[in-house]
Every structure is written in structure tokens, then in C-alpha cells.
């Protein structure tokens, strides 16, 4: 694993954006695996800036998202589809038909999970998967447990995850209890993975994920098995390193 620690979040965001833009220069039709949460917002702002300055184009790129809450319509203020539209897609030239966020409101959730997985297979593979990390070590919404699921599936969210995300919903009761997520197998099939973490509250789980045992009890620890992982941390999250 290539671990880089930054004094400024601005530099970290610029570096992550440059890695994505660099990929698109060499492979304009790349499939990007994208993440939500507060962590990638600055990276998306950088990419939008780079697009405005003519430094990158997404016109031939594809984007597939990690996860989505079950039961939220696509235009719900907290849906990840809406997050992606507002934070990235509407600011760049990616054709919306080239973007895929799981439909958490699908009547047949199992079929939607299969369709998400198939969309990646149809393209071949994810070229670069961007990841944040949950305080319990989850990636996407793959929660810790005695076992993990390989492919895209419906998951019950941990109370801790719902509590952490309640800040976006106003109240925990409004946070969905389930989500669709790419599986850890789906994530590990990406050619390159870029994991980003900010803040002191992520330091312990980052240390555990990067230096602890590879275990389903810390889903991010499975990244230790991937041959091409770039970890971008600020001082607070990575100062222990
Ligand atoms: C959610 C998302 C994850 C994200 C995590 C951390 O649970 N499903 O993909 O990594 O939150 O969020 P944040 O970046 O806001 O700390």
C-alpha cells in the first residue's frame, strides 16, 4: 500500500483529483467507482474546477457508485444519487446515462443488486475506486461481521453507522435501516483503489485497517490484499504512521 500523509486537506484533495484526472488522460473511457459521505466532497470540487479550466473531460468516462440507501427516492435530499448529481455530475460533462447509482427504491432489490454488478461486468471492471471509511471500518456500506458478502447486496446498517449519518437527516429515525452496497469482492476487483480519510476520529480505524489483521471485523483491512491501493490521509487521521 502506498500511504501519503498531507499537512493540508486542500493538497490531499488536489492530489486525489489529479490521480483521477491523470487516469482519464490516459484512458478517457475509464470507469470510475465513486463514493459519497463528507470525505470526497472536496475532491469532487477540485474535479469540477479542473473541468471548468479545461484540464479534464469526463465526456467518455463512466461512473458507478458504491452504495445507496434503501427506500429513498432518487430525488430525496439525502439520496446518494442526488448527492452525486449535486456535488459532481451536474458540474462536469459526464453523460448522465454513463452514471449509475444503485436504485434504493427499486421494487425488486435483488434484481437491482444484480443489475449493478452486471453494469460493472459489462464495462469490464472499475478502473479506479474511490473510498472513504466508516468509524467501524466499513467500506461502501459493508459492515463488520463474522462474514462479508462478495457482490452487490442489501445490507442492514449498524446503529453506529445510522447514528454517524444522522447528521445529514436531522434525526436518527429518519436514517434508513438498510442500504444497497457493492460487496467487498466488487470493490477489490477494481484495478486501483484510492482510500481517503480525514480527521482524528478516523485515526484509530485507519491504523487498525492498515496495520491490524485482515479480518471481516474490519472490512477496510481487506484492502491489505489488493495490489494497487493508494491511501491519502491528513495529519489527524495518519499522524500515528
Ligand atoms: C457512509 C458511506 C461510506 C463513507 C462513510 C464515511 O457510510 N456509505 O461510503 O465512506 O459514510 O463517511 P464520511 O466521509 O462522511 O466520514
From TrEMBL:
Annotated GO molecular function terms are:
glucosamine-6-phosphate deaminase activity; identical protein binding
**GO biological-process terms attached to the record:** carbohydrate metabolic process; glucosamine catabolic process; N-acetylglucosamine catabolic process; N-acetylneuraminate catabolic process
Which Pfam families has this protein been placed in? Glucosamine_iso
SUPFAM superfamilies linked: NagB/RpiA/CoA transferase-like
Q: Which GO terms describe its cellular component?
A: cytoplasm
Q: Which domain of life is it from?
A: Bacteria
What's the catalysed reaction? alpha-D-glucosamine 6-phosphate + H2O = beta-D-fructose 6-phosphate + NH4(+)
What the entry lists under InterPro entries is as follows: Glc/Gal-6P_isomerase (IPR006148), Glucosamine6P_isomerase (IPR004547), Glucosamine6P_isomerase_CS (IPR018321), NagB/RpiA_transferase-like (IPR037171)
Which keywords has UniProt assigned to this entry?
Carbohydrate metabolism, Hydrolase
Active-site residues per Swiss-Prot or TrEMBL entry: 67 (proton acceptor), 136 (for ring-opening step), 138 (proton acceptor), 143 (for ring-opening step)
EC number(s) for this protein? 3.5.99.6
Pathway(s) served: Amino-sugar metabolism; N-acetylneuraminate degradation; D-fructose 6-phosphate from N-acetylneuraminate: step 5/5
**Limits of the Glucosamine/galactosamine-6-phosphate isomerase domain:** 13-225
Per the similarity annotation, which family is this? Belongs to the glucosamine/galactosamine-6-phosphate isomerase family. NagB subfamily.
Q: Identify the HAMAP family for this entry.
A: GlcN6P_deamin
Instruction: Tell me the function of this protein.
Output: Catalyzes the reversible isomerization-deamination of glucosamine 6-phosphate (GlcN6P) to form fructose 6-phosphate (Fru6P) and ammonium ion.
Query: What name does this protein carry?
Result: Glucosamine-6-phosphate deaminase
Amino acid at each position: 500500500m502506498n500511504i501519503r500523509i498531507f499537512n493540508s486537506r486542500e493538497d490531499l484533495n488536489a492530489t486525489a483529483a489529479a490521480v483521477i484526472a491523470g487516469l482519464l488522460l490516459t484512458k478517457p473511457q475509464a470507469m470510475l467507482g465513486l463514493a459519497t459521505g463528507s470525505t470526497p466532497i472536496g475532491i469532487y470540487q477540485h474535479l469540477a474546477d479542473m473541468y471548468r479550466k479545461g484540464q479534464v473531460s469526463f465526456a467518455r468516462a463512466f461512473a458507478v457508485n458504491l452504495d445507496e440507501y434503501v427506500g429513498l427516492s432518487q430525488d430525496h435530499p439525502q439520496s446518494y444519487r442526488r448527492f452525486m448529481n449535486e456535488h459532481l455530475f451536474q458540474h462536469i460533462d459526464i453523460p448522465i446515462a454513463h452514471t449509475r447509482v444503485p436504485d434504493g427504491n427499486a421494487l425488486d432489490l435483488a434484481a437491482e443488486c444484480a443489475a449493478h454488478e452486471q453494469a460493472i461486468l459489462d464495462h469490464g471492471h472499475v478502473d479506479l475506486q474511490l473510498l472513504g471509511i466508516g468509524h467501524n471500518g466499513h467500506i461502501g456500506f459493508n459492515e463488520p461481521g463474522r462474514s462479508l458478502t462478495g457482490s452487490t447486496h442489501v445490507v442492514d446498517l449498524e446503529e453506529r453507522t445510522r447514528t454517524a449519518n444522522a447528521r445529514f437527516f436531522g434525526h436518527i429515525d429518519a436514517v434508513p435501516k438498510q442500504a444497497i452496497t457493492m460487496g467487498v469482492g466488487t470493490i477489490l476487483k477494481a484495478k486501483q483503489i484510492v482510500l481517503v480519510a480525514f480527521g482524528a476520529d478516523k485515526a484509530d480505524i485507519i491504523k487498525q485497517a492498515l496495520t491490524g489483521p485482515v479480518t471481516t471485523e474490519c472490512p477496510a483491512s481487506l484492502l491489505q490484499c489488493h495490489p494497487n491501493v493508494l491511501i491519502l490521509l491528513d495529519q489527524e487521521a495518519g499522524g500515528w504512521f
